[in-house]
Amino acid sequence: MTFNRLVAGIACVAAAIVALGFVLPWTRVPAITFLCFGMAALGLTVLMRAGQVSFGHAMYAAIGGYAAAFVARGFPAADAVVMLLAGTLASVLAGVLAAAFLSRYRGIFFGMLNLGISMVLFSLVGKLYTWTGGTDGLRFERPPVLGMALERGQFELAMLLITLALAVLVICFMQRYFDSSAGQVMAAIKTNETRLEYIGISARLALAEGYVLSAGLVGLAGALLALVQGLVTPESGYWIRSGEYVFIAILGGAGHAAGAFLGAAVFEVIKLVAAAYFTNAWQILLGSTLIAVIFFAPDGLIGWVRRQAPLRKSQA
Question: What is d(CA 103, CA 204) in angstroms, rounded to the nearest whole number?
Fold first, then answer.
């Protein structure tokens, strides 16, 4: 997949999302949701490229969402951009603390430790009613966007444009990261960690850096979702949400940064279709999709797309 073709594809998809947002207002929130899920899944992809899977990474979405809500309630005039920055920064700081000891573990221990920490956080958020609103969560008023007070429809459109712009920037930045020496070191942790240590590169430090980057991406997604909904609840950090992020990351594939967003789009479409036509069996449809991808596209949807491109070229 050449750079020019990738840019053209991203531009076409972005234009289609914006056009749908203007013509069909009801598509704005689902589009923002899939973009946020794509960002969060991309955070998981960073770790998956190093051969690690976190079953509790949704805790950073909750941290980002609650940090944004605390800013909104503490400073009612705070701008949406400030809230996004606060949510992302809070997640990065939490990621730094967690990475300090999680980076020494690998495999199932890494995944389960993340799950354990996330469940502790989930329980605390549900019980500290005075600060977090308990299981009801925290509601907050719609914030101004770049200093402008907007009505609901205008706010959703503005958030769609902001989320889309951030998604494009994230794809470009993360792909450059994957192609950089730091990204290659992360991939080497999966293939031959011992060799990294022999040549003087700290695998633990590299994984810690990737972990913090991953936490920041998930926290940004959580803050965006909280802003759009005007609400953040403990369920945003529940293990089921973490499982959805892992599902999307596997579905999209780790071969390219755009894979997470492709997986998120398919995930949201399946959920919408299943909710309309298979109300009591949507989990079966999602599970069947994942099984099919594992069997027929083990590198994920992005891997399948990249394999089809030279085939179509040779047939032409």
Answer: 5
For residues 31 and 26, what is the distance between their CA atoms, to the nearest angstrom? 9
Alpha helices in the chain (DSSP H): 3-23, 28-48, 58-74, 80-102, 107-127, 129-132, 152-179, 181-198, 203-229, 239-252, 259-277, 282-296, 300-315
DSSP character at residue 237: G
The angle, 0 to 180 degrees and rounded to 10, between the axes of the packed helices 203-229 and 80-102 is 150
Q: Does residue 1 surpass a pLDDT of 70?
A: no
**Predicted TM-score of the model (pTM):** 0.89
Q: What percent of the chain stands above pLDDT 90?
A: 43
Report d(CA 6, CA 82) in Å as an integer: 31
User: Residue 157 pLDDT > 70, yes or no?
Assistant: yes
CA dihedral 10, 216, 267, 242 (to 10 degrees): 170
CB-based burial label for 20 (10 Å; 0-12, 13-18, 19+): middle
- Between 42-46, 99-103, 295-299, the lowest mean confidence (pLDDT) is in 295-299
CB environment 124-145: b (16+ within 10 A), e (fewer): ebbeeeeebbeeebbebebbbb
Question: pLDDT by residue (tens digit) across 82-91?
Answer: 999 999 999 9
Mean of all residue pLDDT scores within the chain? 86
Cα–Cα dist 47/175, whole Å: 14
Domain ranges of the chain: 3-238
One DSSP character per residue, 10-37 reads HHHHHHHHHHHHHH-GGGHHHHHHHHHH
